């Protein structure tokens, strides 16, 4: 089972590959707040 913060980390990686750094940063921030 993948956790919520892991899902956001994967979405951030995908956003980077799609050349969307702003979305990537947003997902990384969500992943950080969820993992705490």
Description of the molecule:
The structure is a single chain. With 36 residues, the protein is an all-alpha fold. It has helices spanning 4-17, 21-35. The chain is built from 2 helices and no strands. Helix 1 (4-17) runs antiparallel to helix 2 (21-35).
Secondary structure: elements and pairs:
Layout lengths: L3 H14 L3 H15 L1
Helix pairs in contact: 1-2
Overview features:
single chain, mainly alpha, Uncharacterised_VP2110
Distance between the termini: 18 Å
Count every helix, treating DSSP H or I runs of 4 or more residues as helices. Answer: 2
Supply the helix-strand structural class. mainly alpha
Could you give the count of β-strands?
A: 0
Mean pLDDT: 96
Order of secondary-structure elements: HH
**Main sheet, how many strands, which sense, barrel?**
none
Strand content: under 5%
Helix coverage percent of residues? over 70%
State the domain count: 1
Shape field: flat
Oligomer: single chain
Low-confidence stretches: none
Radius of gyration of CA atoms, rounded to a whole number: 9 Å
In short:
The protein is mainly alpha-helical. It has one domain. The chain has two helices and no strands.
């Amino acid at each position: 089972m993948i956790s919520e913060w892991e899902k956001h980390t994967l979405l951030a990686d995908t956003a980077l590959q799609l050349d969307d750094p702003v979305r990537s940063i947003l997902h990384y921030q969500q992943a950080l707040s969820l993992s705490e």
